[in-house]
Protein backbone atom coordinates (compact mmCIF):
# COMPACT_ATOMS: atom_id res chain seq x y z
CA UNK A 1 0.00 0.00 0.00
CA UNK A 2 0.99 3.65 -0.34
CA UNK A 3 1.36 3.98 3.42
CA UNK A 4 3.73 1.01 3.61
CA UNK A 5 5.80 2.46 0.78
CA UNK A 6 6.05 5.86 2.50
CA UNK A 7 7.01 4.08 5.73
CA UNK A 8 9.78 2.18 3.89
CA UNK A 9 11.11 5.41 2.34
CA UNK A 10 11.11 7.13 5.73
CA UNK A 11 12.94 4.23 7.40
CA UNK A 12 15.57 4.21 4.64
CA UNK A 13 16.13 7.98 4.91
CA UNK A 14 16.51 7.88 8.69
CA UNK A 15 18.70 4.75 8.88
CA UNK A 16 21.01 5.09 5.86
CA UNK A 17 24.67 5.86 6.42
CA UNK A 18 24.54 8.49 3.64
CA UNK A 19 25.11 11.62 5.73
CA UNK A 20 22.64 14.49 5.54
CA UNK A 21 19.63 12.56 4.19
CA UNK A 22 18.11 11.94 7.63
CA UNK A 23 18.36 15.67 8.38
CA UNK A 24 16.16 16.40 5.37
CA UNK A 25 13.47 13.98 6.57
CA UNK A 26 13.51 14.70 10.30
CA UNK A 27 13.71 18.50 10.12
CA UNK A 28 10.30 20.15 10.40
CA UNK A 29 11.44 23.61 9.38
CA UNK A 30 11.03 24.11 5.64
CA UNK A 31 14.01 26.47 5.51
CA UNK A 32 16.32 23.99 7.21
CA UNK A 33 14.92 21.20 5.04
CA UNK A 34 15.71 23.22 1.90
CA UNK A 35 19.16 24.10 3.23
CA UNK A 36 20.02 20.46 3.97
CA UNK A 37 18.68 19.40 0.59
CA UNK A 38 20.93 22.00 -1.04
CA UNK A 39 23.93 20.75 0.96
CA UNK A 40 23.28 17.10 0.06
CA UNK A 41 22.75 17.82 -3.65
CA UNK A 42 25.87 20.01 -3.75
CA UNK A 43 27.91 17.26 -2.10
CA UNK A 44 26.62 14.71 -4.62
CA UNK A 45 27.57 16.99 -7.52
CA UNK A 46 31.03 17.62 -6.08
CA UNK A 47 31.76 13.94 -5.41
CA UNK A 48 30.54 12.99 -8.90
CA UNK A 49 32.84 15.60 -10.45
CA UNK A 50 35.83 14.45 -8.37
CA UNK A 51 35.23 10.76 -9.16
CA UNK A 52 34.94 11.51 -12.89
CA UNK A 53 38.27 13.33 -12.77
CA UNK A 54 39.86 10.39 -10.98
CA UNK A 55 38.64 7.92 -13.62
CA UNK A 56 39.72 10.21 -16.47
CA UNK A 57 43.17 10.45 -14.91
CA UNK A 58 43.37 6.67 -14.46
CA UNK A 59 42.40 5.88 -18.07
CA UNK A 60 45.03 8.30 -19.35
CA UNK A 61 47.46 5.60 -18.12
CA UNK A 62 49.91 7.88 -16.24
CA UNK A 63 53.40 6.60 -15.42
CA UNK A 64 56.36 7.67 -13.32
CA UNK A 65 60.05 6.91 -13.90
CA UNK A 66 62.42 6.02 -11.11
CA UNK A 67 66.21 5.75 -11.34
CA UNK A 68 67.96 3.51 -8.83
CA UNK A 69 71.70 2.86 -8.53
CA UNK A 70 72.32 -0.61 -7.11
CA UNK A 71 75.77 -1.55 -5.80
CA UNK A 72 76.76 -5.22 -6.04
CA UNK A 73 79.74 -7.43 -5.20
CA UNK A 74 79.78 -9.13 -8.61
CA UNK A 75 78.51 -7.95 -11.96
CA UNK A 76 78.30 -9.76 -15.30
CA UNK A 77 80.76 -8.75 -17.97
CA UNK A 78 79.16 -7.88 -21.34
CA UNK A 79 79.96 -9.37 -24.74
CA UNK A 80 82.36 -7.38 -26.94
CA UNK A 81 82.54 -7.80 -30.72
CA UNK A 82 85.71 -6.64 -32.51
CA UNK A 83 86.11 -5.89 -36.23
CA UNK A 84 88.87 -4.54 -38.44
CA UNK A 85 87.99 -1.32 -40.25
CA UNK A 86 89.78 -2.80 -43.29
CA UNK A 87 87.69 -5.81 -44.12
CA UNK A 88 89.50 -7.74 -46.88
CA UNK A 89 92.98 -9.03 -47.55
CA UNK A 90 94.76 -6.89 -50.14
CA UNK A 91 95.98 -9.80 -52.25
CA UNK A 92 92.50 -11.30 -52.50
CA UNK A 93 90.84 -8.14 -53.80
CA UNK A 94 93.71 -6.74 -55.86
CA UNK A 95 92.18 -8.06 -59.09
CA UNK A 96 88.60 -8.12 -57.81
CA UNK A 97 87.58 -4.52 -57.25
CA UNK A 98 83.90 -5.41 -57.55
CA UNK A 99 84.07 -7.24 -54.21
CA UNK A 100 83.46 -4.00 -52.27
CA UNK A 101 80.31 -3.34 -54.25
CA UNK A 102 79.19 -6.94 -53.80
CA UNK A 103 79.69 -6.72 -50.05
CA UNK A 104 77.75 -3.45 -49.97
CA UNK A 105 74.81 -5.25 -51.60
CA UNK A 106 75.04 -8.04 -49.04
CA UNK A 107 75.43 -5.77 -46.00
CA UNK A 108 72.48 -3.70 -47.20
CA UNK A 109 70.23 -6.07 -45.24
CA UNK A 110 71.69 -4.53 -42.06
CA UNK A 111 72.27 -0.98 -43.24
CA UNK A 112 70.34 0.44 -46.20
CA UNK A 113 72.56 0.95 -49.24
CA UNK A 114 71.52 2.59 -52.50
CA UNK A 115 72.66 0.20 -55.22
CA UNK A 116 71.88 2.22 -58.31
CA UNK A 117 71.41 1.02 -61.85
CA UNK A 118 74.96 1.55 -63.15
CA UNK A 119 76.31 -1.60 -61.45
CA UNK A 120 73.75 -3.96 -62.93
CA UNK A 121 75.67 -4.68 -66.14
CA UNK A 122 78.98 -5.02 -64.30
CA UNK A 123 77.42 -7.46 -61.83
CA UNK A 124 75.91 -9.43 -64.72
CA UNK A 125 79.31 -9.88 -66.36
CA UNK A 126 80.91 -10.90 -63.08
CA UNK A 127 78.26 -13.51 -62.28
CA UNK A 128 78.43 -14.93 -65.78
CA UNK A 129 82.13 -15.64 -65.32
CA UNK A 130 81.85 -16.68 -61.63
CA UNK A 131 78.71 -18.76 -61.33
CA UNK A 132 79.75 -20.58 -58.17
CA UNK A 133 81.08 -17.49 -56.41
CA UNK A 134 79.98 -17.17 -52.76
CA UNK A 135 80.48 -13.81 -51.05
CA UNK A 136 80.04 -15.53 -47.69
CA UNK A 137 82.88 -18.02 -48.23
CA UNK A 138 85.04 -15.37 -49.86
CA UNK A 139 84.67 -13.10 -46.82
CA UNK A 140 85.26 -15.95 -44.38
CA UNK A 141 88.47 -17.04 -46.19
CA UNK A 142 89.80 -13.65 -47.31
CA UNK A 143 88.54 -11.27 -44.67
CA UNK A 144 90.05 -10.27 -41.36
CA UNK A 145 91.18 -13.20 -39.22
CA UNK A 146 91.99 -13.58 -35.54
CA UNK A 147 95.05 -15.58 -34.53
CA UNK A 148 98.30 -15.07 -32.65
CA UNK A 149 99.53 -12.75 -35.41
CA UNK A 150 96.60 -10.30 -35.18
CA UNK A 151 95.82 -10.74 -31.45
CA UNK A 152 99.21 -10.12 -29.85
CA UNK A 153 98.00 -10.02 -26.25
CA UNK A 154 94.74 -10.73 -24.43
CA UNK A 155 94.00 -10.66 -20.71
CA UNK A 156 90.73 -10.94 -18.90
CA UNK A 157 90.85 -9.99 -15.23
CA UNK A 158 94.54 -10.82 -15.05
CA UNK A 159 94.18 -14.20 -16.77
CA UNK A 160 95.30 -14.83 -20.36
CA UNK A 161 92.75 -15.32 -23.12
CA UNK A 162 93.29 -16.68 -26.59
CA UNK A 163 91.76 -16.43 -30.09
CA UNK A 164 89.82 -19.63 -29.40
CA UNK A 165 87.87 -17.70 -26.72
CA UNK A 166 86.32 -15.55 -29.46
CA UNK A 167 83.38 -16.58 -31.62
CA UNK A 168 83.25 -15.67 -35.31
CA UNK A 169 80.24 -13.60 -36.47
CA UNK A 170 79.34 -11.79 -39.68
CA UNK A 171 78.47 -8.09 -39.53
CA UNK A 172 78.57 -5.18 -41.97
CA UNK A 173 82.33 -5.12 -41.30
CA UNK A 174 82.73 -8.68 -42.57
CA UNK A 175 84.51 -11.10 -40.25
CA UNK A 176 84.14 -10.07 -36.63
CA UNK A 177 84.88 -11.86 -33.37
CA UNK A 178 82.91 -11.81 -30.13
CA UNK A 179 84.40 -12.23 -26.66
CA UNK A 180 82.15 -13.57 -23.89
CA UNK A 181 79.56 -14.86 -26.33
CA UNK A 182 76.44 -16.68 -25.17
CA UNK A 183 77.83 -20.16 -25.86
CA UNK A 184 80.49 -19.98 -23.16
CA UNK A 185 80.03 -22.66 -20.44
CA UNK A 186 80.11 -20.22 -17.48
CA UNK A 187 79.23 -16.58 -17.05
CA UNK A 188 82.16 -14.24 -16.58
CA UNK A 189 81.76 -11.88 -13.64
CA UNK A 190 83.80 -8.91 -12.47
CA UNK A 191 84.50 -8.51 -8.76
CA UNK A 192 86.77 -5.42 -8.84
CA UNK A 193 86.22 -2.21 -10.75
CA UNK A 194 89.01 -0.78 -12.85
CA UNK A 195 89.98 -4.16 -14.30
CA UNK A 196 88.50 -6.15 -17.13
CA UNK A 197 89.47 -7.02 -20.69
CA UNK A 198 92.79 -5.86 -22.19
CA UNK A 199 93.70 -6.56 -25.81
CA UNK A 200 96.54 -5.68 -28.17
CA UNK A 201 95.65 -5.96 -31.88
CA UNK A 202 97.83 -5.84 -34.97
CA UNK A 203 95.59 -4.58 -37.81
CA UNK A 204 98.30 -5.26 -40.45
CA UNK A 205 97.52 -2.28 -42.68
CA UNK A 206 99.63 -3.59 -45.55
CA UNK A 207 97.74 -6.90 -45.53
CA UNK A 208 94.15 -5.59 -45.29
CA UNK A 209 92.37 -2.90 -47.25
CA UNK A 210 88.99 -1.39 -48.00
CA UNK A 211 87.34 0.82 -50.58
CA UNK A 212 87.55 4.50 -49.52
CA UNK A 213 84.61 5.39 -51.80
CA UNK A 214 82.32 3.55 -49.35
CA UNK A 215 83.42 5.68 -46.42
CA UNK A 216 85.87 3.31 -44.73
CA UNK A 217 89.04 5.40 -44.89
CA UNK A 218 90.37 4.77 -41.38
CA UNK A 219 92.71 2.15 -40.00
CA UNK A 220 92.04 0.54 -36.67
CA UNK A 221 89.62 -1.60 -34.70
CA UNK A 222 85.94 -0.95 -34.13
CA UNK A 223 84.09 -2.73 -31.32
CA UNK A 224 80.55 -2.93 -29.97
CA UNK A 225 79.66 -3.67 -26.34
CA UNK A 226 76.37 -5.51 -25.98
CA UNK A 227 74.53 -8.14 -23.98
CA UNK A 228 75.68 -11.75 -24.61
CA UNK A 229 72.06 -12.59 -25.42
CA UNK A 230 71.69 -9.88 -28.10
CA UNK A 231 73.34 -9.58 -31.53
CA UNK A 232 76.07 -6.95 -32.00
CA UNK A 233 74.97 -3.67 -33.55
CA UNK A 234 77.53 -1.34 -35.06
CA UNK A 235 75.23 1.14 -36.79
CA UNK A 236 75.57 4.19 -34.55
CA UNK A 237 76.86 2.15 -31.57
CA UNK A 238 80.29 0.97 -32.68
CA UNK A 239 83.36 2.54 -31.05
CA UNK A 240 86.34 3.03 -33.36
CA UNK A 241 89.92 3.01 -32.12
CA UNK A 242 92.64 4.20 -34.52
CA UNK A 243 96.09 2.68 -34.82
CA UNK A 244 98.81 3.99 -32.52
CA UNK A 245 96.26 4.65 -29.76
CA UNK A 246 95.42 3.17 -26.38
CA UNK A 247 91.65 3.24 -25.83
CA UNK A 248 90.34 3.25 -22.26
CA UNK A 249 86.68 2.22 -22.29
CA UNK A 250 84.85 2.67 -18.98
CA UNK A 251 81.47 0.97 -19.11
CA UNK A 252 78.39 1.05 -16.94
CA UNK A 253 75.46 -1.32 -16.90
CA UNK A 254 72.05 0.31 -17.37
CA UNK A 255 68.85 -1.71 -17.11
CA UNK A 256 65.67 -0.22 -18.51
CA UNK A 257 62.23 -1.56 -17.58
CA UNK A 258 59.23 -0.33 -19.59
CA UNK A 259 55.59 -0.94 -18.68
CA UNK A 260 53.46 -2.91 -21.08
CA UNK A 261 50.63 -1.38 -23.04
CA UNK A 262 48.60 0.77 -22.30
CA UNK A 263 50.91 2.31 -19.67
CA UNK A 264 54.01 1.86 -21.83
CA UNK A 265 54.83 0.81 -25.37
CA UNK A 266 56.24 -2.69 -24.87
CA UNK A 267 54.57 -5.98 -25.72
CA UNK A 268 55.63 -8.87 -23.44
CA UNK A 269 53.98 -11.46 -25.70
CA UNK A 270 56.49 -11.03 -28.55
CA UNK A 271 59.22 -13.67 -28.52
CA UNK A 272 62.13 -14.05 -30.94
CA UNK A 273 62.85 -17.38 -32.62
CA UNK A 274 66.61 -17.04 -33.00
CA UNK A 275 67.61 -14.82 -30.06
CA UNK A 276 67.29 -15.69 -26.39
CA UNK A 277 66.23 -12.22 -25.28
CA UNK A 278 64.05 -9.73 -27.12
CA UNK A 279 65.63 -6.62 -28.59
CA UNK A 280 64.42 -4.16 -31.20
CA UNK A 281 67.46 -4.80 -33.39
CA UNK A 282 67.05 -8.58 -33.20
CA UNK A 283 63.35 -8.26 -33.97
CA UNK A 284 64.14 -6.14 -37.05
CA UNK A 285 66.57 -8.78 -38.26
CA UNK A 286 64.00 -11.55 -37.94
CA UNK A 287 61.30 -9.41 -39.58
CA UNK A 288 63.54 -8.71 -42.58
CA UNK A 289 64.50 -12.38 -42.79
CA UNK A 290 60.85 -13.45 -42.83
CA UNK A 291 59.87 -11.03 -45.62
CA UNK A 292 62.91 -11.87 -47.75
CA UNK A 293 62.33 -15.61 -47.33
CA UNK A 294 58.72 -15.21 -48.46
CA UNK A 295 59.50 -12.96 -51.43
CA UNK A 296 62.78 -14.44 -52.68
CA UNK A 297 62.74 -18.02 -51.37
CA UNK A 298 66.19 -17.60 -49.82
CA UNK A 299 67.80 -16.09 -46.74
CA UNK A 300 70.81 -13.72 -46.52
CA UNK A 301 73.56 -15.19 -44.36
CA UNK A 302 73.76 -11.95 -42.33
CA UNK A 303 70.22 -12.52 -41.04
CA UNK A 304 69.13 -15.22 -38.56
CA UNK A 305 66.99 -18.15 -39.64
CA UNK A 306 66.98 -21.39 -41.56
CA UNK A 307 66.68 -21.34 -45.32
CA UNK A 308 68.65 -21.63 -48.54
CA UNK A 309 71.36 -19.02 -48.84
CA UNK A 310 70.77 -16.18 -51.30
CA UNK A 311 73.27 -15.97 -54.15
CA UNK A 312 74.51 -12.65 -55.51
CA UNK A 313 72.00 -12.54 -58.35
CA UNK A 314 69.10 -12.90 -55.92
CA UNK A 315 70.70 -10.29 -53.68
CA UNK A 316 70.70 -7.81 -56.53
CA UNK A 317 67.42 -8.73 -58.30
CA UNK A 318 65.21 -9.67 -55.35
CA UNK A 319 66.65 -8.99 -51.89
CA UNK A 320 67.60 -5.35 -52.48
CA UNK A 321 64.23 -4.41 -54.13
CA UNK A 322 62.40 -6.22 -51.33
CA UNK A 323 64.31 -4.23 -48.69
CA UNK A 324 63.55 -1.01 -50.55
CA UNK A 325 59.82 -1.83 -50.70
CA UNK A 326 59.88 -2.69 -47.00
CA UNK A 327 61.33 0.74 -46.25
CA UNK A 328 58.66 2.44 -48.36
CA UNK A 329 55.75 0.38 -47.00
CA UNK A 330 57.00 0.36 -43.41
CA UNK A 331 56.70 -3.43 -43.18
CA UNK A 332 59.14 -3.63 -40.27
CA UNK A 333 58.30 -0.66 -38.07
CA UNK A 334 59.74 0.02 -34.61
CA UNK A 335 58.87 2.02 -31.53
CA UNK A 336 55.23 1.91 -30.51
CA UNK A 337 53.10 -0.95 -29.21
CA UNK A 338 51.30 -1.37 -32.55
CA UNK A 339 54.54 -1.51 -34.55
CA UNK A 340 56.18 -4.71 -35.73
CA UNK A 341 59.04 -4.38 -33.26
CA UNK A 342 58.04 -2.38 -30.17
CA UNK A 343 60.51 -1.40 -27.50
CA UNK A 344 61.59 -4.24 -25.18
CA UNK A 345 60.00 -4.52 -21.76
CA UNK A 346 63.44 -5.05 -20.24
CA UNK A 347 66.74 -4.10 -21.83
CA UNK A 348 70.36 -3.94 -20.71
CA UNK A 349 72.68 -1.36 -22.26
CA UNK A 350 76.32 -0.53 -21.65
CA UNK A 351 77.01 3.19 -22.03
CA UNK A 352 80.71 3.68 -22.67
CA UNK A 353 83.05 6.54 -21.89
CA UNK A 354 86.13 6.50 -24.12
CA UNK A 355 89.45 8.21 -23.55
CA UNK A 356 92.60 7.85 -25.62
CA UNK A 357 96.33 8.04 -25.10
CA UNK A 358 99.15 7.60 -27.59
CA UNK A 359 100.49 4.08 -27.92
CA UNK A 360 103.28 3.66 -27.30
CA UNK A 361 105.58 6.14 -25.62
CA UNK A 362 109.07 6.78 -26.94
CA UNK A 363 110.78 4.60 -24.35
CA UNK A 364 108.28 1.75 -24.53
CA UNK A 365 108.65 1.68 -28.32
CA UNK A 366 112.19 0.37 -27.96
CA UNK A 367 111.03 -2.38 -25.62
CA UNK A 368 108.14 -3.39 -27.90
CA UNK A 369 110.33 -3.25 -30.97
CA UNK A 370 112.72 -5.72 -29.42
CA UNK A 371 109.96 -7.96 -28.07
CA UNK A 372 107.82 -8.03 -31.22
CA UNK A 373 110.72 -7.70 -33.65
CA UNK A 374 108.93 -4.82 -35.34
CA UNK A 375 110.05 -1.31 -36.15
CA UNK A 376 108.79 1.73 -34.28
CA UNK A 377 106.94 2.97 -37.35
CA UNK A 378 105.22 -0.39 -37.75
CA UNK A 379 104.03 -0.33 -34.13
CA UNK A 380 102.65 3.20 -34.45
CA UNK A 381 100.89 2.38 -37.75
CA UNK A 382 99.46 -1.06 -36.93
CA UNK A 383 99.01 -1.70 -33.21
CA UNK A 384 95.84 -0.89 -31.27
CA UNK A 385 95.59 -1.29 -27.49
CA UNK A 386 92.10 -1.53 -25.94
CA UNK A 387 91.12 -1.67 -22.24
CA UNK A 388 87.48 -2.35 -21.35
CA UNK A 389 86.52 -2.18 -17.68
CA UNK A 390 83.68 -1.25 -15.35
CA UNK A 391 83.75 2.23 -13.91
CA UNK A 392 82.11 1.03 -10.68
CA UNK A 393 80.57 -2.19 -9.44
CA UNK A 394 77.02 -1.00 -9.75
CA UNK A 395 74.22 -0.86 -12.24
CA UNK A 396 71.66 1.81 -12.87
CA UNK A 397 68.05 0.75 -13.19
CA UNK A 398 65.60 3.05 -14.97
CA UNK A 399 62.14 1.73 -14.22
CA UNK A 400 58.83 2.93 -15.61
CA UNK A 401 56.04 2.41 -13.09
CA UNK A 402 52.28 2.86 -13.01
CA UNK A 403 51.51 6.21 -11.42
CA UNK A 404 48.07 5.01 -10.29
CA UNK A 405 47.12 1.42 -9.51
CA UNK A 406 43.62 -0.02 -9.16
CA UNK A 407 43.85 -0.10 -5.36
CA UNK A 408 44.98 3.53 -5.29
CA UNK A 409 42.09 4.48 -7.58
CA UNK A 410 39.59 2.75 -5.27
CA UNK A 411 41.16 4.41 -2.23
CA UNK A 412 40.92 7.81 -3.92
CA UNK A 413 37.28 7.28 -4.88
CA UNK A 414 36.48 6.07 -1.37
CA UNK A 415 38.19 9.11 0.10
CA UNK A 416 36.10 11.48 -2.04
CA UNK A 417 32.90 9.68 -1.07
CA UNK A 418 33.81 9.80 2.60
CA UNK A 419 34.87 13.47 2.48
CA UNK A 420 31.79 14.88 0.79
CA UNK A 421 29.03 12.38 1.65
CA UNK A 422 30.34 10.24 4.47
CA UNK A 423 29.56 7.27 2.24
CA UNK A 424 31.27 3.90 2.02
CA UNK A 425 30.80 0.62 0.21
CA UNK A 426 28.07 -0.27 2.69
CA UNK A 427 26.26 2.96 1.78
CA UNK A 428 26.38 2.09 -1.92
CA UNK A 429 24.93 -1.35 -1.17
CA UNK A 430 22.13 0.27 0.84
CA UNK A 431 21.28 2.59 -2.06
CA UNK A 432 21.36 -0.30 -4.55
CA UNK A 433 19.07 -2.31 -2.30
CA UNK A 434 16.66 0.62 -1.98
CA UNK A 435 16.54 1.21 -5.72
CA UNK A 436 16.12 -2.50 -6.45
CA UNK A 437 13.27 -2.82 -3.92
CA UNK A 438 11.42 0.15 -5.42
CA UNK A 439 11.92 -1.27 -8.88
CA UNK A 440 10.42 -4.60 -7.81
CA UNK A 441 7.43 -2.80 -6.24
CA UNK A 442 6.91 -0.84 -9.45
CA UNK A 443 6.92 -4.06 -11.49
CA UNK A 444 4.39 -5.68 -9.14
CA UNK A 445 2.18 -2.58 -9.28
CA UNK A 446 2.19 -2.60 -13.10
CA UNK A 447 1.39 -6.29 -13.23
CA UNK A 448 -1.55 -5.92 -10.84
CA UNK A 449 -2.99 -2.91 -12.72
CA UNK A 450 -2.51 -4.43 -16.21
CA UNK A 451 -5.82 -4.89 -18.11
CA UNK A 452 -7.04 -8.45 -18.63
CA UNK A 453 -6.46 -9.76 -22.16
CA UNK A 454 -9.57 -11.07 -23.94
CA UNK A 455 -9.73 -14.86 -24.43
CA UNK A 456 -10.00 -15.12 -28.19
CA UNK A 457 -9.97 -18.92 -28.11
CA UNK A 458 -12.99 -19.00 -25.80
CA UNK A 459 -15.02 -16.67 -28.09
CA UNK A 460 -14.22 -18.90 -31.07
CA UNK A 461 -15.54 -21.93 -29.20
CA UNK A 462 -18.76 -20.08 -28.28
CA UNK A 463 -19.34 -19.13 -31.91
CA UNK A 464 -18.87 -22.72 -33.07
CA UNK A 465 -21.31 -24.07 -30.45
CA UNK A 466 -23.84 -21.40 -31.44
CA UNK A 467 -23.62 -22.47 -35.10
CA UNK A 468 -24.20 -26.10 -34.11
CA UNK A 469 -27.33 -25.16 -32.22
CA UNK A 470 -28.64 -23.25 -35.23
CA UNK A 471 -27.98 -26.25 -37.47
CA UNK A 472 -29.72 -28.58 -35.00
CA UNK A 473 -32.75 -26.33 -34.96
TrEMBL record:
Gene3D superfamilies on file: Acid-sensing ion channels like domains (2.60.470.10), YojJ-like (1.10.287.770)
Name under which the protein is recorded: Bile acid-sensitive ion channel
Protein role: Forms bile acid-gated sodium channels and may play a role in bile acid-dependent absorption and secretion by epithelial cells of the bile ducts. Displays high selectivity for sodium ions but can also permit the permeation of other cations. The gating could be indirect and the consequence of alterations of the membrane environment of the channel by bile acids. As a sodium channel of type II unipolar brush cells of the vestibulocerebellum, controlling the electrical activity of these cells, could play a role in motor coordination and balance.
TM regions (residue ranges): 34-51
Record membrane topology: Multi-pass membrane protein
Keyword Flavoprotein: no
Location of the protein in the cell: Apical cell membrane
Record GO terms (molecular function): bile acid-gated sodium channel activity; ligand-gated sodium channel activity
Subunit structure: Forms homotrimeric channels.
Entry keyword Disulfide bond: yes
Entry GO CC: apical plasma membrane
Primary residence: membrane
Keyword set, alphabetical order: Cell membrane, Disulfide bond, Glycoprotein, Ion channel, Ion transport, Membrane, Sodium, Sodium channel, Sodium transport, Transmembrane, Transmembrane helix, Transport
InterPro entries: ENaC (IPR001873)
One Pfam family hit: ASC
Family as reported in the entry's similarity comment: Belongs to the amiloride-sensitive sodium channel (TC 1.A.6) family. ASIC5 subfamily.
Enzymatic reactions: K(+)(in) = K(+)(out); H(+)(in) = H(+)(out); Li(+)(in) = Li(+)(out); Na(+)(in) = Na(+)(out)
